[in-house]
Each structure stands twice: as C-alpha cells, then as structure tokens.
C-alpha cells in the first residue's frame, strides 16, 4: 500500500479515535525508527514511554520468538513458570507484595480500584471513595476515565461510576479536606505524565503516605508511566523513601508487548479466588518478554543511564529558543514554550527527523527509550533546534 492508500483505508476501516501524525512507521532499532520512505527519526516518544529498550531489541526479539515456538498462551487455569518468575522479580525490585497481571494500564488501575473497594468494605466500614488528582490520567475504561482528573475524557460517557473525588495535585491539605468516612484510598501518579510531566512538590508524596497511615486509607501509586527505570530509579516512589500499598504498572513492562501489573502489599492483598480475572493477563509470551526487558535494564545499568541521560535531555530542552519551563525527572521531560507553538514544533520536528509529543498548545513531552545514547540525543537536539528555527 502507498502512504495515501493506507491513510484512506485507515479512515474506512478504523474508528476515528486517534489523531495520527502523517507518518507510517515500519521498522526500528534502538532509539531510531524508519518510515515507509526509508526516512530515519530519533524517537523521543518510544510508543509513549513503552519501548524501554527502544525498537527491536535482540534480547526481547529472541525471548519472544523462543517462547512463541514453545507456548504462547494457556489461560490462568494452569500454572506457568514465566508468570511466577516475573511476579517474583517485580516484588524483589519494589516492596513486599503480590501481583495480579493485566494487559494494559487501565486494567491495572481497574484492579487497584477493585482492591480499594473490597478493602474499604472489609477494613473501613464500607468506604469506597477514591481521591485522585485534577489533571491526572489513569486510563479509558469507565472507572479509570472517571478516576482520571480531566472531565473532558469522561463527560461524553455519563452516567459515570460513583466514588471518585478530584483534588488539585500537590495540595496535601486538599486531600485532608476531601477525606471523610466514605474515603477508602488516595490514588496518584508520582509524576503526572499525560498532562505534560508534572512532578510533585517536595514532601507531597511523603505527606500523603503519612496521611494515609494516620487515617487508615490505602495509598495507590499509578507508576504506569513512571515505573521501571524511566525516572532514574526502578520506581518513582523510590525517590521519596516511601512505598505505596498498591502500585500499578504497564507501558514499559513488556518493552512493547502488552502487559500490565497491579502489586498489592500485604495490607491491601484482599482479592480472593473468583474476585477478579483476565483471560490473557500474565500469559507466558508477555511475561517472557517482560522478563527479558527487566534482565536487560538491569544488566546494562539502564536505570542509572536514564538518570544521566535525563540530565542531558533536560539541558537540550532548556537550550531551545522561547522556552518557559522544562520539567521532569530522568527520561521523562517536558518543555513548556512561552508561545503556543507546541503542535507546530511537533510537526517541524517530524520533518527534521525527530519524534516528540505535543500534549497541549505550549507543552511538548519527551519520553525516549532508556537505551538512548548521548550521540542520539545530540542528533535529536540538532533536529529540534532546526525545528524551533522554523516553528
Ligand atoms: C499514568 C497512566 N496511567 C494509566 C494509563 C493508561 O494505560 P493504557 O493506555 O495502557 O490503558 C496511562 C496511559 O497513558 C498512564 O500514563
């Protein structure tokens, strides 16, 4: 198919849920990706914080091919080793907990919401409300889109599930004021991603942890975008010396193969046989991919590398013309321009061989693969400078 034929067929056969950029990607290697005309781009989006090891990492490709040749799927009616090994590895890397596997971020958060509701019934006199942050993003299912603190995503689908209260991000007093008899949990992103990479103010997450302990609430951290090395620690909460009661993961976990996880500490580990399930969740193929990803992140020291490259990326963004603010942590950085040029900058970057993500009129997000090299960042920087000159 030519590009034009593809775009026309897409319009005919796919629901119009995405505003796609005018490029057809066909193959990649590491932080570089190519389109159908053979043009190469430095990929600073990485499938929206998904491809931790970039594109076509040989260790993941090999692991997936070998597992596909042996056993792709069994259902959760039986034991499979990759699932158990992956759960053990995630627990070792994070905090004492047990794992439920899913296929996406929204499903991981659905599991967390069900845990909070069951826990509230059992341990807080039937409490069911979850406090979340304005501007947050937790997914597109009915419950997670209601948890999401951006009404425009949820309103077309009313009536919405009950039990979600939104407060300004970073305001501990607002959480205190919103807490009542019905409150079961507080659910936050340790750095808000989708809205344009908003880190928490100093002491906020520590304060929320202490409040949840004092009030007997669950603290749920959505680490779907921040988890697995992206912020320069395995998990973003590790910057703060706290642990959540429930943590959700997805995105980077499978290096592009769909898989998510919900981890519950003993206090929150309330799900019993029959309470929850998933046909595909934790299947041998996805778990084998995730095991390969974690093994490479660890053996190649990519968590420390992400911290280091994050410093370089931040400096590159700060150096662009017309920048108001640059904010982020590790390889999760956003630039806010003084003028509303983000969309034009994104389009110009594409012409200059750099993939970035405009999240609103002024803000551009970059979440490159953890494997990105200084030379690739310099190449992206040169492309962004040229794009800025013309945007
Ligand atoms: C913090 C966060 N939570 C949840 C989600 C939803 O994940 P998914 O699209 O895999 O359902 C996202 C996706 O952008 C996210 O960034």
Features:
2 domains; Aspartate Aminotransferase, domain 1; 7-stranded mixed sheet; Aspartate Aminotransferase, domain 2; binds pyridoxal-5'-phosphate; alpha/beta; about 400 residues; 4-stranded mixed sheet; 15 strands
Question: How would you describe this structure to a colleague?
Answer:
- This protein is an alpha/beta fold and 391 residues long.
- It has 2 domains: 8-57 and 301-389, Alpha-Beta Complex (Aspartate Aminotransferase, domain 1), CATH 3.90.1150.10; 71-299, Aspartate Aminotransferase, domain 2 (3-Layer(aba) Sandwich), CATH 3.40.640.
- 37% of the residues lie in helices and 17% in strands.
- The protein has helices at 3-13, 46-49, 58-68, 81-93, 105-123, 142-147, 151-154, 172-178, 204-215, 284-299, 302-318, 342-351, 374-389; strands at residues 25-29, 32-35, 40-43, 98-102, 129-133, 164-167, 183-188, 218-222, 246-249, 260-264, 323-328, 333-337, 354-355, 357-358, 363-366.
- A 7-stranded mixed sheet has the order 4-10-9-8-7-5-6, with helices on both faces. A 4-stranded mixed sheet has the order 1-2-3-13. Strands 11-12-15-14 form a 4-stranded antiparallel sheet, with helices on one face.
- Helix 9 links the parallel strand 7 (183-188) and strand 8 (218-222).
- Helix 3 (58-68) packs antiparallel against helix 10 (284-299), helix 11 runs parallel beside helix 13 and helix 12 (342-351) packs across helix 13.
- The longest helix has 19 residues, at 105-123.
- The protein is globular.
- It starts with a helix and ends with a helix.
- The mean pLDDT is 97.
- Residues 48, 104-106, 109, 137-139, 189, 193-194, 222, 224-225, 250 line the site of pyridoxal-5'-phosphate (PLP).
